[in-house]
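Bench log, entry 3. Co-assembly request; chain sequences pasted below exactly as received.
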Amino acid sequence: MTPKLRIASAVAACCLALVSSAPADPIIVESPAGVLTLTFDVQDGVPMYRVSRGPDAVIAPSRLGFQLRGGRSLCDGLKVITTKSDSNDTTWVQPWGEEKEIRDRHRELRVELGEIEGGERRLNIIFRVFDDGIGFRYEIPKQAGLDKIEIDDELTQFAMTGDHQTWWVPAFEHNRYEYAYSKTPLHDVRKVHTPFTMATEDGLYLSIHEAALTDFASMALWRKDGLTLEADLVPWSDGIKVKGTAPMVSPWRTVQVADSPGGLIESHLILNLNEPSEIHDTSWIKPGKYVGIWWEMHLGISTWGSGPKHGATTKNTKRYIDFAADNGFDGVLVEGWNVGWDGDWMANADKFSFTKPYPDYDLQELAEYAREKGVTLIGHHETAGGIDSYERQMEDAFALLEKLGVRAVKTGYVAHGQSIKRIDENGKEQREWHHGQYMVRHYRKVVECAARHHVMLDVHEPIKDTGIRRTWPNMMTREGACGQEFNAWGGEKRNKPNHTTILPFTRLLAGPMDFTPGIFDVLFEKYNGDNRVSTTVAKQLALYVVLYSPLQMAADLPENYLARPEPFQFIKDVPTDWKITKVLNGEIGEYVTIARQDRNSNNWYVGSITNEKSRDFDIALDFLAEGHSYKAQIYHDGEGADWKTNPLPVTIDKKLVTSSDSLRIKLAPGGGTAIRLEQID
Ligand code: NOJ
Ligand code: CA
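Structure output for the full assembly:
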């Protein structure tokens, strides 16, 4: 297929530009089905792009480029030297995921820019235009007088065309990505993290993010004034944003564009802009469900540190392993197993050992015990931001996991923003952000080390997901937003009923999240009277389908599951690896319904959740295979359920359905419905 690029005029303009700086004609790239149009041009030496969807402008003319330390700019005085177009229409298979087969259909434009006045400066920009969004990345090629690159500023703009409704968490704050989402008009935004989601008056839904964040600073967005957002790279402690040598590539800057909120979720743009897998034999990488010695610490029943309430004892761990084996779980997470938790662990990161268990935790015996029962232990590496110390121990720590047959580890980086300690080249202590280049490098080192040792990762306090699970499929899931634990901590911190109706359209556009759903004792009055989970129990079930994660925790205490075997059956049944995902309906912050087909059977699962408002609607079951019957098991809010006053009742209805039926969904305030559709003929 010949890409539909109108470049003839650009080539002519390019020759013209050799003799003068007359404006080059725009280069227009249409997406494969003609849904989106990207236009590139150079105006007065400044590279610019814009994007439209049919008659609607999505991104108004926006500048591109960098300012480097030492005075060299890669943003002005430039002209087009050459352009090259390409196109792609291929389908690739995810080893695990929310969708098995992913189509990558796009058109590409590569623009090589050079200095108008005979100088040496060079900058290349590669655009990819899909029907569901665009991506572009910079390439700083080798060029005279530029061995070492120090980026002072990335000048990329995203000029929005209206005062859109937006959903965001603030950037450059101490609690990393862990904030309640704000919903404001664009003019009230200042510095925000990505994915940054917007709804336009014309009914479009947009999300700005980045893909393949590798050896670069992460990109926050800054609305300095007007309706224009600018890339705001997270700096090193010395103020430089990115350090490297030429040639250097940036991550992809991405703008997803959909005509429904669910369209953002169904888009695979971020994954498509990542490189294929570096791991060739992925047979050891297995999605699954886990339980763990975790919620009991957050409730204050047991402690991470040693002493009479120590949670990670051999005896307690065996209890969890037995529970996991009896109920079909794949893993048991054990936090607080290793020396270092005593005292103020957040202030003593260097004291953590990642190989030495507490004396009342028999690691060898437990690994063996778990293996015999067909369960894996899930290790835990809480670094508290002590990167030097962790990097020194990392190789041994992962070798130990591998030797013991521990197939997954949860890592953690509890430390305030900009408080990650780094010892610089002169032996001086510096403080870094979680999201700067230093930590982007660190998080990737861990992924690669884990891969060498056949260990899957679940990262808390992570760098945001930018789709690298395609390249490193052992990078399973991560936190990176307020998870369930905020409900244990309570008060102002507690997640509001609308929180999980925002996450799928914001944080989860980046990739899977280890939210840790499944709390049945949502009031946990026995442990902490002031705190609670602000949902019904049925909504906790629905979250297993709505919030995608290949490793999904059943977070509550075993006794709370054993006390309610009927709703627990849904958690036992629900898979974590899918063939197809469809968003059936949704409004950001209001409600959402998602259907997913199990990758290993013909069964479908549906999760539907609402914010604090009750609602009811019909869903058509036309996603089911025609000509087959399905047994529907519907776990819904029981009579009189309400997250605030009566969160516990779950009623289970059973009926036979086919693809021509529809189901009435009734959601209580703060409620949800979880459905299993088992194909029976
Ligand atoms: C924060 C993590 O999100 C949480 O899951 C973990 O229990 C604590 N850190 C301790 O590592
Ligand atoms: Ca956390």
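The CA atoms of residues 489 and 531 lie 7 Å apart. The chain has two domains: 5-272, 288-573.
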